[in-house]
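Worked example 2:
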Amino acid sequence: MRPKDLYLIAFAVSLACTPAAVPSSGSPPRRATYVTAAEIRDANVEMGSAYDAIARLRPNWLTHVTETFTTPPKREFARVFVDGRFYGELESLRNFDASQIADVRFYSAAESGRFGLEGGLSGVIEITTKK
């Protein structure tokens, strides 16, 4: 075989291995650790609490739990921060209107160190409010 033929074969193989283009639906892809105000609005949960919105859109954030090795053992859930400040425990989301949310992020326990000691062992749910 000639080198020119090898290049053509290699080119054809590389084209066959490329993924097909997926048509865009017009909305950004859903991310496991991020929720936008548009996603909350599109899911029709902006009239409820932040807890309701997260329960509908990312329910696994609410079940993320760590068992402590204290006596008696204690279950710790993700902690809530609003605009960079500690807001409360997970249940405090029930007192926060979803319509006030610009975006929400979930940080795992490994990432929650950026919130200091208040970050907790089970991660952080951080809400950024609309200005």
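The chain has a mean pLDDT of 83. The longest helix spans residues 3-17.
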